[in-house]
Amino acid sequence: MEASDKKKRLEENTPVNRHGNLKTASSDENLLNILNHIKSSKTPAVINYGASWCGVCSQILPAFCRLSNNFPKLSFVYADIDECPETTQHIRYTPTFQFYRDGERVDEMFGAGEERLHDRLWLHS
């Protein structure tokens, strides 16, 4: 299955975000704008760095989207490392979740696990 087919299938299985607090970074420039907004607005946020070819990422992304509905005060961002190659060079493992508070990165989680992710989101919300 090609990457574009995987991405399309993944988007079809992703739950609807009810609060408008979920964004997808579509390019390096877009991700930089999102990061600048997180830093300047000091809004609590979580960024999910993943890849369309990563099986674990594909499994946790629908849960990430579902959880965005449970934490409306958090900003949720999904960044595909292949679509944002310059700004995601520091990412060594997918999925990687980075948590921001008051414009600063305060936590990081590697790997999946919906319960682990839920607990971290609750901690940082």
Automatic annotation (TrEMBL):
Pfam families: Thioredoxin
Protein name: Thioredoxin domain-containing protein
Domain Thioredoxin: 36-118
SUPFAM superfamilies for the chain: Thioredoxin-like
PANTHER family named among the record's database cross-references: THIOREDOXIN-LIKE 3-3
Basic and acidic residues biased stretches: 1-12
Positions of the UniProt region annotated as Disordered: 1-24
InterPro entries: Thioredoxin-like_sf, Thioredoxin_domain, TRL33
